[in-house]
Amino acid sequence: MLRNMLALTSMTLVISSVSGCLPETKPGFNSPAPSKRLDAIVEASTLEDDESLVKLVEKLRSHDPAERMFAIRSLEIRTDETLEFDHAAPAWERVEAVDRWIEYLNDRGIETSAIMDDGENDQNDPMEKDTETELSQQNSND
Predict the structure, then answer these.
(1) C-alpha span between 62 and 60 (Å, rounded)
(2) Is 62 a domain residue?
(3) How far, CA to CA in Å, does 88 sit from each of 39, 43, 81, 85?
(4) Which has the higher per-residue pLDDT, 47 or 7?
(5) 8 A C-beta contact, residue 40 and residue 28
(6) How far apart are the first and last CA of the chain?
(7) What's the structural domain count of the chain?
(8) 104 is in which domain, residue-wise?
(9) At what angle do helices 65-79 and 91-107 cross, to 10 degrees?
(10) Domain assignment of residue 76, yes or no
(11) Residue-level pLDDT at 132
(12) How far is the C-alpha of 91 from the C-alpha of 83, rounded, in Å?
C-alpha cells in the first residue's frame, strides 16, 4: 500500500512540473487544470469520507487514462480492491468494472445516485458532441 502511495505521489510531481504554465488553481475533481484534478484524486486516497469514494468511482469513467489510473490506485489504497478495473481496458470492460464499483459502494450503504447513469458519454471526445450539434443545426437550416 505504501508503494502505491509513493508511486501516485511521484506521478503527481512529474505531472505538476510539466504543467507549470497553467494559472494557479486549487486541486479539485472538476478543476480545469489536469494536474489539479490528479492532485485531488491523489489527495482522496488519504481521506475517509464516502463522498470522495464516489468521486473516485466517477473518475473511473474519465476520458483521460491518467485520471482513471490515479483513481483506481486511490481506490485500491482506500479499499484494498480494484474489482478488476483496468484503466487501459476497452471502454466496454471499463463500464462493466465501474458497475461493479457502484455495486460495491451500494452494498456498503454509500449513496451513488450522483454517479452519472450513462458513462458512454464520458468516453467520447467532447469536441465530437460540438461537431454533431453543429452538423444537426446545419442540416436543419438547409
Answers:
(1) 6
(2) yes
(3) 20, 22, 17, 9
(4) 47
(5) yes
(6) 60
(7) 1
(8) 2-18+25-133
(9) 30
(10) yes
(11) 42
(12) 16
Q: Distance from CA of residue 7 to its chain's centroid? A: 17
Q: How far is CA 135 from CA 116, 126, 131, 141, in A?
A: 26, 15, 6, 10
Asked if residue 139 belongs to a domain, the reply is: no
Dist. CA 45–CA 31, nearest whole Å: 18
93-141 pLDDT per residue, tens: 999 999 999 999 999 999 999 886 544 334 332 222 333 444 444 445 5
pLDDT in tens, 45-92: 999 999 999 999 999 999 999 999 999 999 999 999 999 999 999 999
Position 46 in a domain: yes
Q: With 0-12 CB in 10 A as exposed, 13-18 as middle and 19+ as buried, what is 138?
A: exposed
Per the document, the length of the chain is 142
For residues 15 and 8, the answer to whether their CB atoms sit within 8 Å is no
36: which 3 cell numbers? 489539479
Phi and psi at 126, nearest 5°, equal: -60, -25
> What residue spans of 1-142 are helical by DSSP H?
2-18, 34-44, 50-59, 65-79, 91-107, 120-123, 126-141
